[in-house]
Inverse folding.
């Protein structure tokens, strides 16, 4: 039987207006350099009304923001994230600490995390940004219990690190679209309304953190499918925002039907921003993130790239609002958008010497150095898990 094919999508799209959050500079004590959103009277992070995702990046000269691990002593850092190992010469990007406006974040305590999560599984599901965060959490926990016996099991799409003494499993499941990709008559079909195969790997987790978005915009050789499938029909392509909304709704329906909120905590990470155009910030040192050593200061970003990310965030927020299950949004977009200094740039093990010499064309301005910004994402996850 031949594969039925529609050459253009017949699904109607809903116009999604893009917006950019304006990041306002604030006044801080002379002893600290801060960039970001307005700051007010500080209170405990458990206080009502405290928005942990609105705040400032503070350069901590006291050493309080020092990385808990290095690129040399963590067992899971991929070469593409290991900026220290591959020659990044500066280190101030490791000394910035996130301070919410009006309250204080608890410091990440790895032993406390392992103790509270004893006998449980934490799983990240998504694309390489999810892997970035998974590796960060493993590194933070390993640094807290370096002598504790552990086991790493790697096998695409599931990667698992077990802290045997604590019976804690921290996993990453690669599913950049979340929904399934089936093979039909030798062709890869992105199934917008089917998630059953991927989801089998997630059922037993006690904490689930999902991310998706970037791969939905890829075209040509970068996309991992030949056709899209929906409601029994097949499409060469369709409006990518509509496709993302359809796929994410399939994910949401699965969570609502299959996840017991009394047993499993579910998070969804907002879009991680990129910094490929230095026109997005004042006083750039190159054409992209290469050579940047400090966060964005001033009113923030106002670009078409940022608008595309914002449109995907609108889809994520709309889908989460329509769910029955209590899924928490890990809203890292605005705070990460300030960190033009935190990408691997050319200090990536995935690049050849020739590519490193061509910063304009080869710099990685989408992933993040480890140690680095994803450690803050995990500090926020720790806060939402145990303090909110």
């Amino acid at each position: 039987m031949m594969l039925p094919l529609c050459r253009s999508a017949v699904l109607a799209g809903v116009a999604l207006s893009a917006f950019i959050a304006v990041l306002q500079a604030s006044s801080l004590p002379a002893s600290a350099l801060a960039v970001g959103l307005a700051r007010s009277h500080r209170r405990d992070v458990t206080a009502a009304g405290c928005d942990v995702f609105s705040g400032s990046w503070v350069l901590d000269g006291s050493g309080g923001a020092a990385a808990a691990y290095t690129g040399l002593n963590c067992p899971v850092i991929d070469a593409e994230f290991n900026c220290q190992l591959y020659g990044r010469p500066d280190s101030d990007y490791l000394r910035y600490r996130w301070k919410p406006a009006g309250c204080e974040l608890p410091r990440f305590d790895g032993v406390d995390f392992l103790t509270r999560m004893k006998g449980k599984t934490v799983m990240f599901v998504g694309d390489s940004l999810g892997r970035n965060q998974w590796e960060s959490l493993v590194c933070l926990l390993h640094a807290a219990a370096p002598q504790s016996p552990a086991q790493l099991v790697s096998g695409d799409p599931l990667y698992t690190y077990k802290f045997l003494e604590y019976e804690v499993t921290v996993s990453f499941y690669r599913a950049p679209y979340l929904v399934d990709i089936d093979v039909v008559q030798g062709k890869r079909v992105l199934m917008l309304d089917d998630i059953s195969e991927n989801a089998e790997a997630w059922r037993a987790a006690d904490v689930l953190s999902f991310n998706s978005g970037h791969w939905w915009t890829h075209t040509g050789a970068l996309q991992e499918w030949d056709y899209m499938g929906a409601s029994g029909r097949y499409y060469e392509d369709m409006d990518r925002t509509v496709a993302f909304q359809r796929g994410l709704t399939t994910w949401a329906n699965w969570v609502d039907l299959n996840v017991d909120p009394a047993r499993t905590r579910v998070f969804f990470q907002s879009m991680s921003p990129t910094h490929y155009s230095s026109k997005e910030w004042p006083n750039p040192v190159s054409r992209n993130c290469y050579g940047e050593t400090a966060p964005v200061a001033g009113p923030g970003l106002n670009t078409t790239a940022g608008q595309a990310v914002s449109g995907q965030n609108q889809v994520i927020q709309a889908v989460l609002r329509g769910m029955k299950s209590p899924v928490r949004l890990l809203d890292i977009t605005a705070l990460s958008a300030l960190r033009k200094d935190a990408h691997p740039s050319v200090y990536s093990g995935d690049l050849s010497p020739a590519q490193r010499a061509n910063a304009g064309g080869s710099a990685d301005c989408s992933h993040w150095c480890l140690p680095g910004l994803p450690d803050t994402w995990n500090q926020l996850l720790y806060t939402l898990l145990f303090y909110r």
